Amino acid sequence: MTRRKMKLTFIVNNSSRKTTYKKRKRGLLKKAHEIFTLSEINAGAIIYSPYDPTPEAWPSVEGMNQVITTFRNLPEIDQQNNVVNQQEFVQQRITKADKLLLKKKKDNMEVNLTEDMYLFLRIGQDLNDLGYLVDQYLNSLNRRIQILEGGSDVEICESLQTGN
């Protein structure tokens, strides 16, 4: 039997909701046990249920108290180490997406330039003309760099008048 995607909505049927709760609780406690067993990390879980008057604690109430005490004894900076609010989380996601966007733009530019080079070769365009244009552009950029690095006002005016 294959698993199907389940809609995360409130289960109206009370008996179905209780059955689902029990299965999910068992799975959650199993995951907490696996984390503890595989990585020897102190882990705990407290589950409040509308079906039981007392909360259930894993591995035990004493074990859970030990985990909470250990956490509270940590310095404040360690307690807040990986905690983010919703605004910080969204900002981190935006920053990550911006970096990915810049990378994709760079990749697209490289692909477009490569395609353009092959297009020039296919249509038989004289590559000497293309080389001449590239040399002119580089010379113009070098002149602007020299002006910005310490050229005089006269050179800046001349550059602006010629459009280079």
UniProtKB/TrEMBL annotation:
Entry-linked InterPro entries: TF_MADSbox (IPR002100), TF_MADSbox_sf (IPR036879)
GO molecular function per UniProt: DNA-binding transcription factor activity, RNA polymerase II-specific; protein dimerization activity; RNA polymerase II cis-regulatory region sequence-specific DNA binding
Domain of life: Eukaryota
Cellular location(s): Nucleus
Record-annotated MADS-box domain positions: 1-49
Record-linked SMART domains: MADS
Name the UniProt record assigns to this protein: Agamous-like MADS-box protein AGL80
The organism of origin for this protein: Raphanus sativus (Radish)
